[in-house]
Amino acid sequence: MSASNNDASTSEVAKPASAEKTTNGQEVAEQTGEGAASGHAENVFQITVKLPHAPFEHAVTISTSEQVQDLRQAIIETPQLFQYSCFHLELDGQRINDYIELSEVPGLKPDAVLTLVEDPYTEKEARMHVIRVRELIGAAGDRTDALHGILAGMSLHDNIGTEESGKESAEQTPLSDYDFTSGGAVKTLLPPEQEPAPKTIKSVSVSPWNPPPYHLRSKGHLLYLQITTNEGEQYYITSNVAGFYVNKSTNAKFDPWPRQAPKAHAAHSLLTLLGEISPSFSSTFTAYLEQTQKRDPLTFFQLSNAIPANPWLVPAPNTSHTTHQADLARTQESYLISGVESTETLRDWNEEFQSTREMPKEAVQDRVFRERLTSKLFADYNDAAARGAMLVARGEIAPLNPTEAKDAQIFVYNNIFYSFGADGVGTFGTEGGDEAARVAVGKDVFGVRAVNNLDIPNLFTSGTVVVDYLGKRIVGQSIVPGIFKQRGEGEHQIDYGAVEGKEIVADDKSFVPLFEQLSKALRVKKHPVWDKDNVRHELEGSVETKGLIGTDGRRYALDLYRLTPVDVNWIEEHWSEPSKDGKPKPADKDYPHRMATLRPELVESYGRLKLRDYIKTELTKKTEKAKNGESAQKAEINGDAESKEVATREESKEEKEAAEEDRVDISGFQFALNPDVFCGQHPQSDEDKEEWAKDEAEVRAACDHLLTDVVPRLILELKDGEVGFPMDGQSLSLLLHKRGINIRYLGKIAELADKEDPRLQALKRLAIQEMITRGFKHFSNSKLRNLSAPFAAPCVAHLLNCLLGSELNPNPVAESDSVLKSLYPECDFSFEKLTPESVKKEVQAQVTLRYRYDLGDSWFASNRHLQMLREISLKLGLQLENKEYAFTKQATTNGVGSEANSVAATNGMATSGSKKKKNKNSSPTRAASPTATTVQTFLADDILNMVPIVKEASPKSLLAEEALEAGRMSVAQDQKELGQELLIESLTLHEQIYGVLHPEVARVYHTLSNLLFNLDDKAAALELAHKAVIVSERTLGIDHTDTVLAYLNLALFEHATGNGRTALSYVRHALELWKIVYGADHPDSITTLNNAAVMLQTLKNFPESKVWFEASLSMCEQISGKDSITTATLLFQVAQSLALVKDMRGAVNRMRESYTIFNTVLGAEDRNTKEAEQWLEQLTTSAVSQAKHSQALASGRLRRLQLGGRGALRPQAAVGQTANETTAANRPRAGTNRVDQRSIEDLLRYIEGESPKKTPKKRTPAANPKRRTQKAA
């Protein structure tokens, strides 16, 4: 039973979408049509539930494939039935078991009548009921959650467009006052002030008389509560097994027996009792529910299957969003949740993980249940592990080995084992020490995730989470049974792989079949290794990958940080072994660690290359055979499961072409890399030496493939604008990782991008920004690591002042509290001595060390302070006060950050000037008058919170992914109805398995909205696009790049369904976000500006539309050059827009420029050239006759007008994908290259004031003009 009704993992998720349920008063729409997912039409029906109180009966639609628990949840969450939480259901007088499927209930059929019977409470049920009622009536107050930061999981979706709606006139649109050149405004990320919710009751808390004494406990007393109503009356309530009643106790006297009539009140539910004792309760509760239901439920449901996104800019502590209210029960919540003993919260994580892995997965329903449980379990574990890691970082948990050095200390809390991501015991002494250990634990998480995704039967992993917090890296692992067991002499701690360094190698044969499957999937070659006595051992995986047989008999894979070979090119060029006499390393070979491995994506990419070569060779052999007179028969691909996977994964054009010519048997193809080459192994026999040399050559070839093929190809694609351009460090990192490029190659990327091309310049700037922020992160962590929590904010503020605020104040002063400092003699306060010069020098050194790039004097662009601040905040987990920070002296004189922060010597509690004024849109604030105090950009008080950065290993749902892929394939093969069913089934599976509020679900909403839109199901596409925005905002961040793309997508769909103004509000919000994330001139924003212009044109706002077309053209000329086809296409559109505002001369000039470019680049015979020529002739004629028609022009009415194919909207390409890949199922775009003669004539008729005789049909939208014209060529 849920403690809270706002739990997104329950009702909405658990039910197949075809079953209508009333949840929180909202009808959950019938999303899937008939027969989706698990519920088919024949087993979805209505039943009636008889109730003990008014309304006495309630109808519910159920699906027999659901659990009885799901039906209970639907009852609990129906507004009229909120009072019920402790009950059971009966059918024909027989109690129904709560833990079975509805299909297993004997006699359950359509129109059956179930009876709801109220149960006696237990102490746990009573506590849960109190928590639930507090949540329902809005009496829970604000919470200060250690893990979730300020306004975690916030959404701005419901507020977009609401501010403008009041101000707009018919001529004005949401884009009317948009400034193309201004920088990002941080107020975009500020939620509007909220009106306070109606107060239903003053307070509900546990009474000071709680818990019941022994003699009353035996009489059925469970809890004592204290309630203050809105009328100011105070009541003491007894909770006993039969329900709740008002007792005779007072503050001074204990008497828990019922009051006498007429003051006697009793009820089975606390909610009913509140209505009886407070006259105003019913009306305020109804008003409270109405206010809650105005908002989309997705925006306030609690996230239960994912850690919510923490915004990096949050409102000041004195705003309506963050007011701290008095609430006695807040301190009592842990008691209400887990009881006096608190034993309910301790879980055996390892046993839960492994027993979930062992659940059956043959039937689809079994897989759904297993994957749903896995997703919830990982979410719970990640949450618990992150909370424990924060306590470890703050020093609030006692170590198990307090006598050891700090880095070597280990901890156990909540059945999770914690250690630091540092080399406390010298394991990585030769690999780079602490740096190597830090990298290894990060790679281990990704290794564990890879193994979890493979889901190999009988091979288990421990739950693993890495948390970066306050400069420390902490690893949390579920405790593998037997890992701490003391072994006898001759026994090893490890059963497979290296023991104690690499001196002893264990090779328990029972691990061979398990590691064989793992290695096959991850392309790891079976190979020999040698121990200290040169004894040869054949291993399936890397010598670093360990196998352990737990005392529970299960086989565990541990230390999964070396699943791929080392990047030998990088290591040979930049790493040298530490010298024994402690001499410093040479400057060009001082990379901090030797853990530079290749990415699994690169190994896959190289594998595909090898497969292509293999197919070419086989085809050549076949052709030769055919030439020799043999008939070349088509050989079906017949390989094992792996070869089929390879065949389906292969997406390259070459292979597709080859497959068309002939089919090749790829069962003979083998490809795997040896992860232990170049790692100190010494082959003994000649045969081994020869094999080892081949393995080394293969790994070198893979490393060369990265440098000679993968990196240059990515640079070329970004230069040509073929794929979506990254917006910030996060999207750049993700793009590199998807292509198999490690972050250490950022310097290489910056060097290759150092060309005249504007797109490459933008890439270079992004790469440099990312290197600086990462270098600053490493340096900040080194300072924060040895400080106690109270000094984190002053340290961060001073470091930020040195990096970003040195233009405002070249000599920033660190805020310090000498009284506090004296209490922490062991802390390192060296950060106070740092100056802007020393910080920049340190960051420069980090960039040179880690990325082999010399920043030189060209630091980051001066107008990118805000972007830099955002990147740093996201990497360090900072939550700063949302205000305009003054980075330069000019900004302070202009009144930006008007309360230019001044440091006052008041015990570390400096305050910034008039914050209240800032929040009101009053007249511009004047610059602060000069005072004797120091003006600085950041104060310690501006750093309101620091949140942990969590890396976790939860696997993806294979079942949901398979359904999504099947749907995509069907749509691509033009089986639209089947495709649509499969896509909606995939959506239901995603929601069931992950819960609605999860990043994976946001991704699938986004993908499906595009696919359904292309299948002409616009209403469903629009609904999913709205959900994609909300879920992205809450799980990824309100200014995450995926959120920006989701808003742009939503704007296109709103426009297509006729909501032009709403669409423009979303476009504006996306553009404002874009300015904060990247700046005002992102290369891909050309498409968005152009789309906005087309939307304005549809709204018949021709003057404004012309401005946006011109802005799009101006940016395109900067980025693509004045003579590119894209520029010609935009000139064509600008000419049309000028004609619509009657500027015929301008239209002719622009069309002539467009014609000239098309003619030069594509030739006179190209369709685009001819179309431009025809328009040019007509426009010239019209310009000549324009003077004669001035009177007709004056009386000309505005009419809807369909322009040529160029006026169509284009989807925004996702980062690293083409626009076609983004929409995934583009329809054939017929007729986009024809000359649209009618639209020229219509335009001219309009300009000359005549009515068009016939409205042209709406044409299929054109694709990206650049690719479209290339096809035409």
TrEMBL record:
GO CC annotations, alphabetized: cytoplasm
Taxonomy, superkingdom: Eukaryota
Keywords recorded for this protein, A-Z: Cytoplasm, RNA-binding, TPR repeat
Compartment(s) of residence: Cytoplasm
Gene3D superfamilies tied to this protein: Hypothetical protein (hspc210) (3.30.2280.10), Tetratricopeptide repeat domain (1.25.40.10)
One GO term (biological process): intracellular distribution of mitochondria
Polar residues: bias regions: 1-12, 896-913, 1215-1225
Segment forming the signal sequence: none
InterPro entries: CLU-central, CLU_dom, CLU_N, CLU_prot, GSKIP_dom, GSKIP_dom_sf, TPR-like_helical_dom_sf
Pfam families linked to this entry: CLU, CLU_N, eIF3_p135, GSKIP_dom, TPR_10, TPR_12
SUPFAM superfamilies on file: Hypothetical protein c14orf129, hspc210, TPR-like
Compositionally biased spans, kind Basic and acidic residues: 641-656, 1235-1253
Protein purpose: mRNA-binding protein involved in proper cytoplasmic distribution of mitochondria.
Subunit and partners: May associate with the eukaryotic translation initiation factor 3 (eIF-3) complex.
Family: Belongs to the CLU family.
Name used for this protein in its record: Clustered mitochondria protein homolog
